[in-house]
Amino acid sequence: GYAGTAVFSKVEPLSVRTSLVVAGQPDNEGRFVALEFSSFWLVHTYVPNAGQKLERLKYRTESWDKALFAELKALDQSKPVVWCGDLNVAHQEIDIHDPKGNKNKTAGFTDAERESFGGFLASGFVDTFRHLNELVQAYTYFSYRFGARGKNKGWRLDYFVVSSTLLDNVVRYPL
Predict the structure, then answer these.
(1) Which domains does the chain have, with CATH numbers?
(2) Where does the record place the site Important for catalytic activity (predicted)?
(3) 86 an active-site residue?
(4) Is residue 83 within 8 Å of residue 72, measured between CB atoms?
(5) Catalytic choice (86, 95, 127, 159)
(6) Looking at 46, 65, 95, 127, which residue is catalytic?
(7) Would residue 46 show up in a list of annotated catalytic residues for this protein?
(8) Is 88 annotated as a binding residue?
(9) CB 46 within 8 A of CB 4
(10) Residues 59-96: pLDDT tens digits?
């Protein structure tokens, strides 16, 4: 697919899945890979961006998110899950430099995206960075325009989310 995800591992996984069924169709954008290891699943995704005019918002929240979250919950039934990647959502106001200027105007900071992700977290998964750094404002993405990095005007779009049963194994998460 055109989006593409990859995982490099020194340990050979027991199995690998590279397809996610979204709205009854296989996702052909290359946005999903799940690796099964002996004691956990590692899932890497590049979640679709809703677009400049939010033209893919409905697809993202009503189709993609629902399919992905169902898959993650199903995997979690067999082994705990570590989910990482570009999730294309700034979940809380602290995760974006200008929450008021972007709320419901910019992909990644709409109520629909934030509520979708928040609902998933409430089902037994944990945002590891926010768990360990409750009040830290840190970003993983900076626009190339307007010197955003130098001005620390960014977004936290990249995450490590784990099954709550793995939380004791999470000890540090610097950005």
Answers:
(1) 15-169 (3.60.10.10)
(2) 158
(3) yes
(4) yes
(5) 86
(6) 46
(7) yes
(8) yes
(9) yes
(10) 999 999 999 999 999 999 999 999 999 999 999 999 99
